[in-house]
Amino acid sequence: MFSSAQATVAPSTATPPSTPPAAPDTTVMPPPSMVPAPGAVTGSGTPAARDFLTRLRAIAQTHSVLVLPYADADVVALTKAGMTGYVASAVSDGRAIAARVLGADAKLMMDVAWPAGGVVDTAALAQYQSQGYTSALLTSSAVQATSANQPTALTLTTAAGPINAAVSDVSLSGDVREVISGDVEGQAGRLNRLAANLVLRASTSQGIAAVFAPSRDYLPSGAGFSTLCALLNALSANGLVTGISLPEVAAQATSSAELTYPDTGAALELQPATLNNVKSVIAGFAGISDSLAVQISEADRAEFGPPAPAGLFDPFIAGLSRQFSAGLRGKPTISAQLLSATGQLVREVRDGAYIVKPAGSFTLTSETSPLFISLHNNLPFPVRLAVNINALDAARAGLSPQNIGIQTVAAGRSLTLTIPSEITRSGVFKVGVQLTGADSAKWGSPVVLVLRSTAIGSFTLILIVSAASVLFIGLVMRLRRRWRDRHSRAAQRARDAAITPAPNHPAPDTAAAPEVAGTEAATTEGAS
Q: Pro residues bias located where (predicted)?
């Protein structure tokens, strides 16, 4: 970073070290909660590591160190994916690691946001602000100034309010990058060109700061960086440049601008599918840790085994958190390989505890016959699991099992559970059963239980009684109808018998009587 009353800002006017300072944004350290993995041993590089940290702390006491979120998280991509909780964790872990590793005397800049590539959208910048960042370092392609000339410092506005940003000088960056490359051939010419550029700025800039922001993956050589520091110290000794911090540069903002997020930045972001896969595997390890978090007294350890050590999977979670790093932009293969390996580990751990598949079927002879389910734990630690019976299968079978809650299965042991239940139907039914962990994730493979119920439950009994009642009522009505039909036919026969003469005594023909009588009268009259 460069600025002064005349031209530019050197990182420091102190004598440059013999070796270049390490770039803090590329340093990967374990989060504060990480514990050594079981069985870890001290390596042979301890003296070299201790010497490196000593020199790094000495440099951090004289040179400002811009602290990035842990693993240089891709804040833009995480914000777009709605994973702002991971942004907060990365910011918190990054600050804690810097303070712990570099010491209390280090000159740490924890409130300056430097997004990947120096570009950021409005939502991500607001997310930075919500995490306590009060200024930002951006490239000129990230802002659209309202004035004709591109200022070094601008005021931007987001949903979280205004924030000042220092803007890196693109034209100066090329010259600086060439000098710190350390390429011996042509170094004198590059150094002279940079010196002339700085002197020219010193005479014309009227105290306007100039900022050089290297790319994330730049690798300066020790010789090149020392050459740059020597040049800046010489210019400073002649009153041409002086040092100024990034927050001071940002505070010089006198005009406003709008953020312009370039398409090239959007194209490089970590993909949502990758972020979601990382999130899923992290949640898997966290869920396993919860299921292994068994509180066991000393008296019960002989029965259940020792509990899993705290932070057992923290190294895996820390490693997965690095997959949110902007350094993996455009490198999907690396993330895919790690996610494949860690995802397989999650599945193998969960398959270590399972329901033992029964050899045959269960016969339930009464309405309150319990279910017997056997669990086995192949893991070296006790685990807390719950048995879940498929609700739809249970409803079809008329089965009402009780919830017995989470059960602890001892390390390397089996456990047979007795689940009180009621069944209201008879027949053969298939019921699915699945183990779940403390986070409701599935453990082991699902098992199908075959239930043969000979019980007559209250519901079945009601059906039987109802059916018998219907049959009885139908039988009574049929007998009554037959009796009435028989009685009607008998009465009809009686009426028919009352009006029909016997065969030997034919009834007089009443229709012919008048004619006979007339004949007899006529005969009598003729005789007289």
A: 17-35
Are the beta carbons of 420 and 403 closer than 8 angstroms?
no
**What CATH number corresponds to the domain at position 445?**
2.60.40.10
**What is the spatial distance between Cα 87 and Cα 116, in angstroms, rounded to a whole number?**
14
CA distance 32 to 30: 6
Residues 277, 261 share a domain: no
Q: Name the residue with tokens 């042509």.
A: 186
Same domain, 239 and 295: no
- 234 with 86, same domain: the answer is yes
Torsion angle, alpha carbons of 287, 289, 291, 292, to 10: 170
Rounded CA-CA distance 416/495 in Å is: 82
Distance CA 266, CA 141 (A): 13
Which helix (H) or strand (E) is 259 found in, with range? strand 257-259
End-to-end CA distance of the chain: 174
**Cα 135 from Cα 166, distance rounded (Å):** 8
Residues 234 and 306 in one domain: no
Model confidence over 137-169: pLDDT tens digits? Answer: 999 889 886 655 667 899 999 999 999 999 988
Q: pLDDT tens across 317-376, in order?
A: 888 999 999 999 988 888 899 899 999 999 999 999 999 999 888 888 888 899 999 999
Q: Which residues pair with 166 in a beta bridge?
A: 137, 153
Query: 195 in a domain, yes or no?
Result: yes
On the CB side of 236, CA atoms within 13 Å amount to 20
Q: Helix, strand, or coil here: 277? A: helix
Number of domains in the chain: 3
Is residue 249's pLDDT more than 50?
yes
10 Å CB burial of residue 203 (0-12, 13-18, 19+) is exposed
Q: Concatenated DSSP letters for 423-484? A: E---EEEEEEEEEE-TTS-EEEEEEEEEEEE----HHHHHHHHHHHHHHHHHHHHHHHHHHH
Distance between CA atoms of residues 314 and 286, nearest Å = 9
> Would 42 be classed as within a structural domain?
no
Residue 277's domain comprises 272-350
Residues with Cβ within 8 Å of 173's Cβ and at least 6 positions away in sequence, in order, are: 212, 213, 214
